[in-house]
Amino acid sequence: METIITSKIVLTPLIPLVTALLIMASKNKPNLRETWSVCGAVLTFLSVVYFLPRLLGGGSYEYTMFTLYPGVSVKFQLDGLGILFAGTSSFLWIMAGFYCMGYMRGLDEHAQTRFYFCYAVAVGGAMGAAFSANLFTLYLFYEIVSIFTYPLVAHHQDEEGYFGGRKYIVYLMFASKAFLLPAMVLVYVQCGTLDFAIGNVASGIFPHTASPLLVKITYILCIFGFAKAALMPIHGWLPAAMVAPTPVSALLHAVVVVKVGVFSVARVMLSVFGVNLLDQLGLGTFTAYLASFTIIVASMIALTQNNLKMRLAYSTVSQLSYIILGVAMLTPNSITGGIIHITNHAFAKITLFFCAGAIFVVTRKKNVSEMGGIGWNMPFTMIAFGLASLSMIGVPPVSGFVTKWFLALGTLDINNTILLSVILVSSLLNAGYFVPVFYTSFFGKRSPGDNPSMGFQEGSPLIMLMVIPLFFTAVASVLFGIYPDLFLKIINLMVAR
Amino acid sequence: MEQYLIYNTLSYPILTVLVCVPIFGAIITLAIRGDRNLKIWGMLVTLLTAVLSLPLYSSFDLTTAKYQFAEFSDWIPFVNIDYVLGVDGISVLLVLLTTLVMPLCILCSWTYIQERFKEFICVLLLMEASMIGVFISLNTVLFFIFWEAMLVPMYLIIAVWGGPRKDYASIKFFLYTLIGSIFLFVAIIALYVTTGTFFIPELMTHHYSFSYQMWIFWAFTLAFAIKVPMWPLHTWLPAAHVEAPTAGSVILASILLKMGGYGFLRFCLPMVPGATVYCMPYLIALSLMSIIFGGYLALGQTDIKRLIAYSSVGHMGFVTLGIFLLNDAGIKGAILQMINHGITTGALFICVGIIYERTHSREISDNSALGMMMPIYVTFLVIFSLSSLAFPGTNSFVGEFLVLVSSFSKYKVVGGFAVIGAILAAAYMLRLVQKMVWADSDGHIHHGEKPHLSDLNFRETATLAFLAIFVFWIGFHPAPFLKVMDASTTHLLEQLESGMNVLPAGHGEPHAILNGVGESIKNLLALK
Prior knowledge:
Chain A is mainly α and 497 residues long.
């Protein structure tokens, strides 16, 4: 099947934006407002599903909305990487939509309309980034996500919130202005266009005459410019963003926002520079070591964190680098492992954050050391936590195993034992910081202030709104571990060419 | 004449009309009584001018670089001074910007100006006539007359309706511009003495000796650099902006500053190309200084108007940078950036005026945490601030992108320095927005702590909405604006090219040392 030019593809980014406006319009009717939010999420997901058969048949959709200058346009195109990211994000938005209701009402948060509005716009931005067909469109939506997540990070509007928000926006804006903007201009100057070479991961868009030094500079500016990928040393915004309400940390800072970052890095590596050029200049290996460093160091920091959300945040920093590591090894197996981790990590990490939020709403506890015995009060939550942890560690049959399997195959393809040992050591570290949480929650000592007779806590409707989604995502994680075929097929379509 | 001009074929002499309507309007103002009637009259005249100017766009011939809608008649024959008007792709957008911004200036003064309304409308209309005159004159004497005519109404706007330090600011503005004008005048006379003509297109065809070009170049450059303003001649601008009433600031930012950029494009580049190319590194360096200093100084301001004034210095630095990179993308980017700056900074000054009317303070700290009270205002503020920091999808991004493309394709290091300006722009604008929208509020309105502030009324919303349309229009679809410049930019670059080639051989000899420095800077900039 060939590429069809149709404006249908604009629907996916447009639905969340329209949803946001509807949310704004019904600000005095909380029930209606949250209905819009969930409906918007469902419709967005359906629009992605609608595109899937065409993609699996080898076809694609494409649409140019505006042309700013020759080679610079707002243009969308469908491909495997984009649909995987869009599908994952929009599906988890449905889960998060329900979870938000429970969390925000459970804590009686203020400014909920603003919250839902920005939430929807941020997801819309991610959808736009997923389907963008050139660097400008990607940059446009990337920046929309940055701006609209600031109100979410600073949501509590206390000193901590403003501090976190400032750190967040300073890191992201600085990186995008200082690195990404010149990178984009340099790409344009060298290639005369910003359009991605989608569907051809081998060659990229750089002409053969490009000066190697300039290409290297452009590449380094690119990977640090996408600060949302949280590659060390520009990862500091992510822990700071944990001051946000937990649904934000869950959907945005484990899935949508950070994945926009790694998605963009992967997209630029595969569709702008191309595997051949990266290989030829040795940039792939360089990135792989950079990612390995992040994986190990972030995991070690995670070990030291007592605050559960902070521990999860550093775990995210580390896990995001798996995706970059996979792509950077530049072999079909490793790229598959990297890209499939976008989905695998998303489902597992959102479960973990959902759990952290549910624990906070029920017990008002943030620190791991205080969580002794709560597993008996919140069994479904903690079982889900356990399953998701297994995915993070990479234990079969949970989905994280699939990632590590392909990544390990990738390291063997390039005969790099250092990277192989990084993957193994990091798995041990993952176990090191996740197993104690699970263990404490069931077998740890109850903290002194606890009421020992506190029984089953997951029965009330508001709490159910949180527990059902998180249990669902945990089970999905297991299912994806057993049946990863669909994702592998989507990725194969892309990598095979 | 026909080789330069395409005579006006519209049913009315459009360019003369655009100058005369505001002048007659201003005279009739003197006979009108009552503030309300005066406002409506001012609005009518500026709207009429705006409507009459629209054929400039719709009937513009995109295929030619000649001066269009031209009018010609003898004026002072014995010294060869003619009355010649015409617009090309460089000036036509600036004329339209002027005619479209002026009604907004009346709208934003609706309640801001409390006294001497008659004089205010009168001065504003005279200002409009002379500003349009500057952009459409094709005779250096006529140009100079309009250039000087602008000075008096602007002086009055600051000196009569200005803030507490209006005397200082207005005199400073007057003196700076006047000094520039003197050099401009000398250059005009010198060109006449050499060539015997005041006709601008003809002056562009003459070839001058290198040292002569250098003198003319620096005389022009001084005048235009003050107007732009380029670092280190920018100090009049913050003073003038802070003291001027809203309409004055809008005119200053949106239109007056553009005359510097326009002057460079109309006089320096085509008339003295040899000197322009020779001096390019210095002017690029000065532009970079403007970008970085403007941004850096904006970062430290506590007065909103002063902050935006310094941001103007930075933005205009991008304009002059684009001009002096002397390539297609740079010049187009510069012209577009002039239009963008007119829209965005004009809108930001209107925003400041609106909040000043409510709180009577321009300090950021007195105008903080408005998000809860004035949601519509804050929405516009965010839109224009994002536009100011060149957020993708807004007008400034396109202009800045073109200038950056031009600098990175010519001198990578220059591009690197310009990026610092982009970072600073994000820093000071986001800081301003954060403080004005959120500050450290806890998300609840505390009654009694602050006076109740009403959100925008219909008039204010309409004013800002009009400009916001252009922010996104140029941001996503700049082709209608860029294609107007195509032919003229190409022609300008051809003039530059041919001018460079006929430079007298060995022109560098008397300047061997200077030339050496220039070359080494050029090499440094090109990373050789």
